[in-house]
């Protein structure tokens, strides 16, 4: 399961860039399922990062924090 949030990129002081942040929740009971979901999410990030099309979002970052995984688009 995942959710998408609207966010503002704060890396640049004079640029206002709006981003979408996709957060993946993982409530799987077993470690194998969690690892498979993480691999799928990483594969999604990698595929999106190499594609170039006006209708496909660009990937700015991919990270995990506090047991959750995030994709910044």
Walkthrough of the structure:
Helices cover 27% and strands 36% of the residues. It is of the alpha+beta class and 73 residues long. The longest helix is centred in the middle third of the chain and has 20 residues, at 31-50. It is globular and about 45 Å long. The mean pLDDT is 85.
Name the descriptors:
73 residues; alpha+beta; 36% strand
The tally of strands reads: 4
Q: Mean pLDDT, nearest integer?
A: 85
Terminus-to-terminus distance: 17 Å
Instruction: Figure out the total of helices.
Output: 1
Decide which structural class fits the backbone. alpha+beta
Radius of gyration: 14 Å
What summary fits the major beta sheet?
Answer: 4 strands, antiparallel
What proportion strand? Answer: 35-45%
String of helices and strands: EEHEE
Going across the major beta sheet, what is the strand order? 1-2-4-3
Please bin the fraction of helical residues.
25-40%
* Low-pLDDT sequence parts: none
* Shape summary: globular
